[in-house]
Task: inverse folding
């Protein structure tokens, strides 16, 4: 009963937030999708963190630790560079652009009739294809949780449940997550759980827009972190105490495998090149390299440029340091409490099983109350991710597809504000239906995550270059998108193995960047008038010498601004990763000398003043 009361309290808060913001959100799309550009920086940063604290992420952590060790987590941590680059280089520019979506940005940045076509293509590519893949593996994680904690076959009347189960069997769906339940039973339970979760999320996110999403995200993140902390304490106690976990891992898996589990760098032969390739490329060659998507949306919703910068920094530290350290502790403990054969074949079934250990531990180890808190935290994490992706995806369909392409371009009319808001709400339902279709055909969470990474990798370079280089044109982006679609299919076919992931990433980066830059020089430049207008409004940094001079500005200012931004990114990234590794090594040292970890922490603190002054400066509108 205590578990249920905690969950109901969270549900009530979310619904109240949605209906409280309904009146403001219904005014127009600016209010619905950007909260009237009134969000404080710390709230926007926490909201970003809540979105990426999806219920699939701790499961993914557990799977990565078991399949390769802590060093595989750099595939997630390295994105911290992109988050910091967004804060110090792109966040303020996103705000100054004044656009509602990153697809709309296309018509601001480029000229010619093809700009609208590219805007529409990007709305479909990001808002539907990639968005639905991400939602699909988030919903896959939801089924792992629901299958254990929501036994609908025990709660619902037998006749009613039997009719539902027969309907599911006739559809031929299979959403069983490996809990041991009969597949038909598990699939029926999971569909009911997903339907209930989606109805709840839609009710507050579609009603109150971004205001309700951010208001609930802040609370959701707090609940999720509090539950995770409680879970970590219980796991440590059940494992025999913090100081004994390392020794237990050695006893269970052997010294060599234990070292692999707990190392922040690859220790096996032939792993260094793949590791360095991923660390060097993955943060840059991805669909959010410049903040594109819901990160840009949060930046554009901030009150000031300074708030947009603060949002990115809060996001990076919460994402990379705070939550990771708690999950490392849990991951180490679960290796002890739920051991496996070190010689086990690492295939999809193994990954699914190790991902599910996180949920199994919640069910077995947590007492009533704590289990309710952690379950509410995971449901909150699920809801915060789903509400953001629904709100973000719907912004493309309403603003870019319906408002700009259908109404303005084809029908030559201006839609009303309330009409646009209702289109946004209906678009959320469409996106959910497509995501469920994809989810039914998805394997492990790692499989979906890697698919989304590959699809986004092809566009990363051109997304950054369009801000930094005046010569990039709309055909550069078209080439990158087309190459990523074609090359993604071919690379998955010819290099399907997990150990070939670095080859896929390097090949995609090379092909897409070469295609984008090559097309840039072979196609006409953007009209000077469009570039000048863009420069005056956005004030981009980088290689804009000719445009700055044509606009009557200091031609050296953009490049100087880029140098300052990169210096701040370097200093802040040094602080971030030195702190992560230093604290992480203290956690995993298990009796070793603390000198090196403390040195890392000291260096992180020494680097902090160099970037903190830029954040604390009161300037910026």
Result:
């Amino acid at each position: 009963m205590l578990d249920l009361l905690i969950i109901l309290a969270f549900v009530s808060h979310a619904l109240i937030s949605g209906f409280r913001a309904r009146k403001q959100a219904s005014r127009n799309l600016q209010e619905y999708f950007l909260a009237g550009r009134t969000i404080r920086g710390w709230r926007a940063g926490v909201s970003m963190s809540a979105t990426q604290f999806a219920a699939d992420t701790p499961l993914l952590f557990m799977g990565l630790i078991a399949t390769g060790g802590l060093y595989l987590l750099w595939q997630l941590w390295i994105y911290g560079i992109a988050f910091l680059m967004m804060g110090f280089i792109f966040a303020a520019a996103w705000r100054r652009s004044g656009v509602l979506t990153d697809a709309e940005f296309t018509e601001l940045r480029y000229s010619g009739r093809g700009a609208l076509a590219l805007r529409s293509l990007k709305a479909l590519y990001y808002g539907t294809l990639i968005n639905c893949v991400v939602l699909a593996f988030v919903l896959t994680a939801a089924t792992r949780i629901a299958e254990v904690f929501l036994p609908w076959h025990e709660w619902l009347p037998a006749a009613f449940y039997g009719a539902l189960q027969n309907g599911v069997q006739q559809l031929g769906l299979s959403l069983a997550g490996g809990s041991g339940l009969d597949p038909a039973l598990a699939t029926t339970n999971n569909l009911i759980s997903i339907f209930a979760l989606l109805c709840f999320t839609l009710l507050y996110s579609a009603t109150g827009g971004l205001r309700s999403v951010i208001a609930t995200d802040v609370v959701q993140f707090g609940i999720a972190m509090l539950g995770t902390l409680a879970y970590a304490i219980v796991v440590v106690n059940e494992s025999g105490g913090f100081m004994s976990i390392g020794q237990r891992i050695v006893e269970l898996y052997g010294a060599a495998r234990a070292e692999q589990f707990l190392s922040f760098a690859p220790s096996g032969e032939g792993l260094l090149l793949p590791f360095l390739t991923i660390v060097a490329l993955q943060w840059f060659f991805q669909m959010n390299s410049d903040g594109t998507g819901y990160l840009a949306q949060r930046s554009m919703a901030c009150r000031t440029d300074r708030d947009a910068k603060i949002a990115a920094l809060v996001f990076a530290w919460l994402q990379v340091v705070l939550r990771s350290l708690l999950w490392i502790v849990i991951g180490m403990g679960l290796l002890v409490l739920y051991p496996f054969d070190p010689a086990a074949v690492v295939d999809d079934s193994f990954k699914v099983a190790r991902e599910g250990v996180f949920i199994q531990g919640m069910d077995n180890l947590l007492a009533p109350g704590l289990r309710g808190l952690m379950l509410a935290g995971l449901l909150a994490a699920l809801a915060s991710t789903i509400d953001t992706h629904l709100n973000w995806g719907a912004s493309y369909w309403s603003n870019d597809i319906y408002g700009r392409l259908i109404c303005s371009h084809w029908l030559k009319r201006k839609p009303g504000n309330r009409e646009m808001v209702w289109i946004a709400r209906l678009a959320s339902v469409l996106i959910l239906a497509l995501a469920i279709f994809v989810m039914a055909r998805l394997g492990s969470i790692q499989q979906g995550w890697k698919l989304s990474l590959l699809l986004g990798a092809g566009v990363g370079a051109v997304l950054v270059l369009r801000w930094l280089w005046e010569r990039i044109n709309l055909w550069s982006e078209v080439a990158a998108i087309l190459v990523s679609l074609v090359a993604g299919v071919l690379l998955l076919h010819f290099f399907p193995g997990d150990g070939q992931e670095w080859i896929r990433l390097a090949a995609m980066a090379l092909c897409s960047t070469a295609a984008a830059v090559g097309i840039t020089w072979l196609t006409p430049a953007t009209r000077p008038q469009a570039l000048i207008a863009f420069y005056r409004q956005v004030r981009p940094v980088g290689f804009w010498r000719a445009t700055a001079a044509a606009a009557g500005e200091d031609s050296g200012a953009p490049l100087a601004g880029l140098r300052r931004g990169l210096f701040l990114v370097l200093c802040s990234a040094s602080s971030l990763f030195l702190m992560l590794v230093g604290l992480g090594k203290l956690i995993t040292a298990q009796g070793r000398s603390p000198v090196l970890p403390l040195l890392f922490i000291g260096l992180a603190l020494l680097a902090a003043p160099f970037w903190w002054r830029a954040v604390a400066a009161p300037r910026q509108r």
